[in-house]
Amino acid sequence: MVDLQTIESEKSVFRDALVALNRARISYVLGGAFAVYFHTGTWRDTKDMDIFLLPPDVGRALGSLRAAGFTTAIEDEHWLAKAFKNGYTIDLVFGEGNWTRPVDREWIDRSSLEHLLGEPVRIAAIEELIWSKAYVASRDRFDGSDIVHLIRASKGAIDWHHLLDRFGNHWQLLFLYINLFLFVYPSNKRYIPTWVLHKMISNLQDQMAEPTPREKICRGTLLDRLSFLDDVEKLGYKDAREIYARERGYPAEDVIAERQWARARIRELTEHPKEE
């Protein structure tokens, strides 16, 4: 049983969403603040609930939520839909904002069955949470603290083989967060298996010994939509998101439109900075 430290109006909306999805027999898992709370015991106030589900189930999920009184919208065709009610939001996540991958069946199969607000729910596995949160590393949001808290709370009881498989050729990103954990919690270094560190160091040595790639690719755009625009638009680097978008069947124009949005957002932030 997961007990929420939140107000009744919030609980009511979230319960309505869970009831609607369960009645429609949607396969989903809870992520975000709810999953972090389940794994770490640390609660942070939130006005949204992150639901991870398979892309083919998005339409039925939105229909069930509309029938339960929610207003719904597709925010981004490749990864995100939303449902709104009484000032609260349900984020229906079926991919990643950077086009790298859709939510797959392992999210469901590796989750754990729990109860929340009187409803049976599945909670995302710690490995999937770390994998997903690793790409949230922008100037306005960084989920690194969630990742190191998840490793600490697990005391290293993580399926590291699975996590390495998840990161694949983005293993450097996992290495970054392992180093961050070791910096933040030096007294808990035993939570990182020695063989994982040896593999990371070996990978790094192999990579440095390989010929330098001739194509200039910037993967910073996978982490931050705003901070690497000049690399692509002025310095001649290829936006890695275009590669992943094409692999998933989306046109490169979608990524270009995202860059146009980001450029407008930077102008907005420059012209109207937040008051301190």
Question: Can you describe this structure?
Answer:
- This protein is α/β, with parallel strands linked by helices and 276 residues long.
- The chain folds into three domains: 117 residues, Beta Polymerase, domain 2 (2-Layer Sandwich), CATH 3.30.460; 59 residues, no CATH class; 55 residues, no CATH class.
- It is built from twelve helices and nine strands.
- It has a five-stranded mixed beta sheet. A two-stranded antiparallel sheet has the order 6-7.
- A hairpin with a 2-residue loop joins β4 and β5.
- α1 crosses α3, α6 crosses α8 and α11 crosses α12.
- The longest helix is centred in the last third of the chain and has 20 residues.
- The radius of gyration is 20 Å and the shape is globular.
- 30% of the residues are buried.
Shape: globular
Structural class: alpha/beta
**CATH topology description of the largest domain:** Beta Polymerase, domain 2
For this structure, what is the CATH class of the largest domain?
Alpha Beta
- Largest sheet entry: 5 strands, mixed
Order of helices and strands: HEHEHEEEHEEHHHHHEHEHH
- The CATH architecture assignment of the largest domain turns out to be 2-Layer Sandwich
What Rg is obtained from the alpha carbons, in whole angstroms?
Answer: 20 Å
**Mean pLDDT over the full residue set:** 94
Annotation field: number of helices: 12
